[in-house]
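[audit] Reproducing an earlier prediction to check determinism. Same input, same settings, fresh worker. If the C-alpha cells differ from the archived copy the diff job will pick it up downstream; this log only records the rerun itself.
[audit] input (300 residues):
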Amino acid sequence: MTLALICGQGRLPRIVADAQTERPLICVLAGFEPDGLVADLTFYLETLGTLLDTLRARSITRVCLCGSIRRPPIDPARLDTKTAPLVPRLQMALTSGDDGALRIVMELFQEAGLTIAAVDELVPDLLPAEGVLTFKSYAPQNSTEARMGERAVAAMGARDAGQACVVRGDTVLAREDAAGTDAMLRRLARDRNSGGGDFLTNPINAASDMFGGLLGDATDWLTGGTSPTEGGILFKAPKPGQDRRADLPVIGGGTPDAVAAAGLSGIVIEADGVMILDRAKTVARCDTLGLFLWVREKSA
C-alpha cells in the first residue's frame, strides 16, 4: 500500500478508492466522514503533524485529497507536539481563500516527502469528453449564457470566490459562495417558489457585477437587464490557474434535480475541468427532467 486518501465528505472518496487496484489507506478528517468508506485513520487538523509521521512510517508515498470539508477552528487543547510547529501555517490556511488554503496544506504534505495525486489522475473517467451528453441539446440562447457564465466564473475565480454561477438571459442571477453549488441552487429555487426577485435586486450581486465590469466584463455583467423568469443554465468551471490536484469542481446525481427545481434549462461544464460523479445516473436524470448537459470546450 503506497497511496493514502485524505478524505472529506461525499461520494468522491469512495469512487476514488473503488477505482484502485490496491486498496488505499483511508484517512478521514474527523467530522467530515465520507459516504460508504470506513476510516483506517481518523485525524484532526490539530494532529496533522502526527498524521504526516504516520504516513511516512507506513511507507505511503502518494496522497490524494478528495471530498468536501469546511474549515474547522483550531482547538488548542487538541494540539499535539508534532503539529505545534505547523500552527502558524495552518492559521494562515484557515484565513486564506480556498486555493490559498489548499496550496498551504499540499505544501505540508510535499515537505513530508509525499507526492500529491490528482483525483482525475487516479480516476480519469470522471472527466467527460467535450459534447452534449443528453438527448436534449442546448439552444442558441444557452450558448450566449455559457459565454457569460465563463466570464463570470473567471472573474470570481480571480478573487478565489467560487467555481459556479447561474445565468438566465442577460443576467448572472447567482454566484457560488463558500456554502457551495447546491446551496446556491436551493436559494434560487426558494426565490422562484416564493415569486420573489431577490437575485435580480440583491445589492451583493449588483456590486459583484460592477466589480466584474472593472475587469472588462461590464457589458455582459450588469444586472437588471431583460431576463425571463424560467430557463437559463448552471455554469461550472475551474478557477483560472487552479491547481488541479485538489478541489477540481464536481457535479453529480443530485445536481439535475437542484437545477430543475431552480427552473433552469440545463447544465454547462468546462471540458477537462469538471468531474461528473455517477455519470450514467446523472445523464439519465437530466434526460428524465428534460435538461441538457453540455460539456463545453473552454473559449480560446
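[audit] rerun output stored. Observation attached for the diff report: The first helix runs from residue 12 to 18.
[audit] end
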